[in-house]
Amino acid sequence: MPSRMSGWLLLSKTAVSELGERLWEDYLAFARRDLSEYETGIRAVERWRSVKLTEFERRQLAAIPRLNEDPRSCWLTPGARWIRVWLMIRPGFLSAAERGALIAVARDGLVEHRVARRANAIVLLNDGWNCEEVGSALLLDDDTVREWFEVYQRQGMAGLRNFGHEGSSCQLTDEQQTALKAFVTTRLPRSTNAIGTWLRKNYELSYSHSGLIALLHRLDFVYHKPQRVPRKLDEAQQQAFIASYEKLLNRLEPDESVVFVDAVHPTHQARPTGCWAPKDVAIGIEQTTGRQRLNIHGAINLETGQTQMLEAPKIDAMSLIALLVAIEATYSGKKWIYVFLDNATYHHAILVREWLGQPGRRIRLHFIPSYCPHLDPIERCWGVMHEHVTNNRSYETFAQFRSAILRFLRRTVPKKWDRFRDRITDNFRIISPDDFRVVA
After folding, report:
1. What is the per-residue pLDDT across 327-364, written as a single tens digit (0 to 9) for each?
2. What is the pLDDT of residues 180-194, one digit of tens each?
3. Total domain count for the chain?
4. To the nearest whole number, what is the mean pLDDT of the chain?
5. Are residues 56 and 141 in the same domain?
6. Could you tell me the residue range of the domain that residue 326 belongs to?
7. CB contact at 8 A, 298 and 264
C-alpha cells in the first residue's frame, strides 16, 4: 500500500507497452515517487516529453498535456491510452462554514438525494476518510468520489448540484426573452412555426423545432388544448345544486336510491386517437362506410354501478318514460327513486309530467343546472365507454358496433364497477369563466 503522499499505480504494464520500455520505466519511477510538491509532476511530464522516441511513439505522445491547474490530479494521455495520476487528498481542507453548509445539505430531507450524497462524500473526505473508504460506504467506486472532490474544488456547492443535463445557454438576451414571453402570451400561437418566424424576423435567430420546444418550456410555457367552456355558467346555481345534492345524500334512507339519466348518440365511424407506437411505424385505422347513429337513453347508480340502457329510434319524451318505467322495475323494493337529469326540452315535456303524476309513481326528478354537464356523472360514463369501445376501434358492420357498445354499458360497467367507480364519480366542482382565459 503506497504512503499517503505517494502516487498510485493505475495501469498495468501491458496497457502502455506501445510506448516502449524506456517510457514504462519513467512511468514507474514517476508513480512511486513523492508527489507532495506540485513541481514533481511538472518535471515528470517534461521528462517524458524529452525522451528520445521513435516517430510512432512521438505521434502517440503528441496529445500529452501539461498538468491541470488543479495540483491534486492530472491526466497523462499517450494517444488512446489514459494514465491518471492522483495526489492524496489532505484532510481538513474545508473551513468550518463550508463543512457546516455541506452537512446541512446532506441532512436536508428535501434536497435531491444525489446532491446530498455528494455533499456527504466531501465531508467524509475532509474528516480523513480516503476515497476507497468513502466509495465503499456510499456503494461507489473511488474514481467517482475523486471526481466529486475535483468538482467541489473548482466550483464549490454549485458544482455538486450540476449534473451536466442543463443544456447550453440561451441565445436570447433577457430583454429578448421578455419580448418573446409577451408575444406568446398575447397571441397564443398555435404552432412553433409562428414563433420561429417571429424570432427570425425580429432577432435574426434560427431555432430547430425541438430547440423551440425546449426554449418555450424553459420560459414556463406549455402546449394547451383549450377546454370547452359553456357561455352561461352560473356559479350560484352550481353551488346551490351541489349543496342540495349533498343534503339529499345525507338524509337518504335505505329504501331510497339516486340515479343519473342522460342520452348519448355514438355514430358508427372510426374515432382515431393518440397512442404510443414505434417511431418508424405509421399507424392507421380502417374507416367505416356508414354513418348510422345509435340512440341510447341510459341511467346509472353511482353507489352500485347498476345501469339501465335503452336503445330507442329517437330520444324524446317517450324514450324517457320508457327509461323511467325500467328504473322503477329495477328498483321495485325502493320507496323513492331520485332521478337527476339535464334540462333537455323532452325532459320537461307534458307527457313526462303526466306520467309522473299517475298514482303510485315512485320517481322524483331533480334537474341539473343548465350548461353544466360537469355536474352529470353519466357524462363521464359516456367518455369511459368511448375509451374502451370506440377509440381506435373499427367495426365492419353497424350491428357489431351496436353490440359492442350495449354490451359494455349493460354488462361490463356493472360487473367491473370497482374498476370504473373512480372515473365515474359525483366529485363535483364549481367552474367559473374567470378560471379561464377564453380564446376569441
Report:
1. 999 999 999 999 999 999 999 999 999 999 999 999 99
2. 999 999 999 989 999
3. 4
4. 82
5. no
6. 235-272+288-420
7. yes
Same structural domain, 365 and 408: yes
CA–CA dist 77, 57 (Å, integer):
12
Residue length of the chain? 440
Name, in order, each residue with C-beta under 8 angstroms of 364's C-beta and a sequence gap of 6 or more. Answer: 336, 337, 338, 339
| Residue 100: CB atoms within 10 Å | 12
The C-alpha R_g of the chain, in whole angstroms, comes to 37
Q: What is the DSSP letter of 87?
A: P
The DSSP-derived string for 30-74 is HHHSB-SSHHHHHHHHHHHHHS---HHHHHHTTTPPPPPSSTTEE
What is the full DSSP assignment across 152-203? HHHHTHHHHH--S-S-SPPSS-HHHHHHHHHHHHHH--SSHHHHHHHHHHHH
Which residues share a beta bridge with 297?
Answer: 263, 310
CB distance 394 to 285 below 8 Å: yes
CB atoms within 10 A of CB 59: 11
Q: Is the pLDDT of residue 226 over 90?
A: no
pTM above 0.90, yes or no: no
Who wins on pLDDT, 78 or 301?
301
Average pLDDT, stretch 304-314?
96
Largest CA distance in the chain: 117
Fill in the amino acid letter for 222: V
